[in-house]
Amino acid sequence: MTGFLAVVGATGTGKSALSLDLATALREAGRPAEIVNADAMQFYRGMDIGTAKLPMEERRGIPHHLFDVLDVTEEASVAWYQPTARAVIDELTARGVMPILVGGSGLYVSSVIHDFRFPPRDRALRERLERELEEEGLPALIERLRLADPATADRIDAANARRVVRALEVHELAERGHGAALPERPVPWRPVEVIGVSTPREVLVERLDRRVEMMWDAGLVAETAELLDHGLEQGVTAVRAIGYAQAVAQLRSELTEAEAIAETQRLTRRYARRQVSWFKRYPAITWVEGGSAEASELARRVRP
């Protein structure tokens, strides 16, 4: 059996269900398995409805790690996550437990399963770029990144100012000889079997749109109001989460409920497209359709 498993794919494809099936099959075959979260927004305490976090009572008694480990005022970063997740995986392996890494945050997943080294940070450079962002605007920085590093500019979320600033910081540091990131050809950190969960596009779009509506019905706006009381807007990462940002706008009367839902649906669909593109680049991955007989058979075939 491989060193650990990774279950990846776009939001709404059925990763959680498959990971539970895999863990159950392993347990029945005599090898305990536990789940390690690789969804950046599920790190946060109190962000439950908008992240589709699996309730405790639906986890089948299987231990879940790296859920609810950050306050909404704290920053989630890949540089923090990589050593944290790897330490959990090493600890589980040492106990004879099969780790199952589960999530759709591509950079977070890649940081664990691939030989991924981080460029250093330069506070003065970052502060200079943030001043330029404020003075020149995001489009100017995106154009600068496009001229300096077209491949990164095409890959990055151009609407995320924080990511654009970091990309420019990394590029300038690389020019000074301090670059370090994913190798040209991904090299595994540990032996890993990666399982990609997919869903036909038309089915996924309908499912995601409905899921957003269900989040509003389940009380996402009330959950967001409570998170605001706990400092959501003082955070760097959590406040930008799709759904929560729109719920905040609704609470501020900047969007109607219908507008907030529609905007969340649009951004969720766009995010899912980026996730699919990210994981399609993985050189060795077994794709199964979520909830299919093929996925069930895969779970049954798992052996310690």
Through-space gap between termini: 6 Å
Widest sheet, order of strands = 3-2-4-1-5-6
Radius of gyration: 20 Å
The geometry reads as globular
Strand content: 5-15%
In round numbers, the mean pLDDT is 89
Largest sheet: 6 strands, parallel
Helix content: 40-55%
User: Which spans have pLDDT < 50 for at least 5 consecutive residues?
Assistant: none
Find the count of extended strands (DSSP E, 2+ residues).
Answer: 6
Helix-strand sequence? EHEEHEHHHHHEHHHHEH
Tags for this entry?
globular; 304 residues; alpha/beta; 6-stranded parallel β-sheet
Task: Give a description of the structure.
The chain has helices at residues 15-28, 78-94, 106-113, 123-136, 138-148, 150-155, 161-175, 201-218, 220-229, 244-251, 257-280, 293-301, and strands at 4-9, 33-37, 64-65, 98-103, 192-198, 286-289. Helix 2 crosses helix 3 (106-113), helix 4 (123-136) crosses helix 5 and helix 9 (220-229) packs across helix 10 (244-251). Helices cover 51% and strands 10% of the residues. The chain has 12 helices and 6 strands. A 6-stranded parallel beta sheet has the order 3-2-4-1-5-6, sandwiched between helices. The protein is an alpha/beta fold. The mean pLDDT is 89. The radius of gyration is 20 Å and the shape is globular.
